[in-house]
Amino acid sequence: MGCQYFAPCDHGSESFTIQIPKVTFGRGCLAEAGARAAAIGMSRVALFTDPFLQDGPYVKTVTQSLKAAGIDVAVFSEIRIEADDASVERGARFIAEGDFDGVVSVGGGSVMDTAKAAMLYALYPTDDFLDYFAPPLGAGKAMPGPLLPHLACPTTSGTGSECTSISVIRITELDTKFVIASPVMLANAALIDPACCDSLPGNVVASTGFDLLSHAIECYTAKAYTQWAKIEDPTKRPLIQGANPWSDLAARKALEIAGEYLVRGVNDASDQEARDQLMWGASLAGMAFGNSGTHLPHAMSYGVTHLMREITTKGYAVESPFIPHGISVVVSAPAIFRYAAEGAPERHLEAAGYLSADLRDAGNDDAGEVVARRLISLMKQTAMPNGLNDLGFTAADVKALAASSIRQGRAIANAPRETNLQDMENIYTAALSYA
Question: Residue 23 falls within a domain, yes or no?
Answer without folding.
Answer: no
